[in-house]
Amino acid sequence: MYVSEKPLKNYPWWLKPFFWSQKRRYGKVLKPGLLWARVPKLFAAVAALYGVLDRKSSPLSPELRSLITVRVSQVNWCAFCIDVNGMTLAQRSGSMDKLNALDQWQTSALFDEKEKVALEYAEAITYSDQHVTPELMTRVKTFFDEDGVIELTGLIAFQNLSSKFNAALDVPAEGFCKLPDKP
């Protein structure tokens, strides 16, 4: 890891409930949270955005959100994100099958057409040598209304922010999920 986190006692008091919640959920405070929290206002903004994107009333299903976050993380080589989001995907889908097949989503029968279009859209946004074509947007809109398109785009953009942040700082996987081999 290229930047170290500070000792917990050195963070503002108002971040402690977040750290307590992470410790309860994951058994420890996660390194990315400690890194983002080095700039508390930035941390608060990122945490608020994540909370909005992963809310129960999202027009995107929990499983689809997890598929997107893992695939974007794979493209961006973020070991931590693949690990923690892979665990969430396995929990939400009930198995490791989709996680293990995600790097071959185009040819796998495990993914339905809505998932495949969402994954194609995620890759078009994430890979710097691709872009969203009018034809792709037409296919995206067959599965998502305009608010759904905004939500999906926001999720992809957020996961690019998160995974690029963690990958750039070399945040390692923490052992939440058995990771599939790199694509």
Structure in words:
This protein has about 180 residues and is mostly helical. The chain is about 60% helix and about 0% strand. It is built from 9 helices and no strands. The protein has helices spanning about 15-25, 30-35, 40-55, 60-75, 80-95, 95-100, 115-125, 135-145, 145-170. Helix 4 runs parallel beside helix 7. The mean pLDDT is about 95.
Percent helix range: 55-70%
Order of helices and strands: HHHHHHHHH
Distance between the termini: 23 Å
Name the structural class. mainly alpha
Largest sheet geometry: none
Rg computed from alpha carbons, rounded to a whole number of angstroms: 17 Å
Quaternary state reads single chain
Unreliable stretches (pLDDT < 50, length at least 5) are none
Number of helices: 9
Globally, the shape reads globular
> Based on the structure given, which CATH architecture of the largest domain is correct?
Up-down Bundle
CATH topology of the largest domain: AhpD-like
* CATH top level assignment of the largest domain: Mainly Alpha
The CATH superfamily of the largest domain appears as AhpD-like
* Tally of separate domains: 2
Q: What percentage of the residues does DSSP assign to strands (E)? A: under 5%
Arithmetic mean pLDDT: 93
The counted number of beta strands is: 0
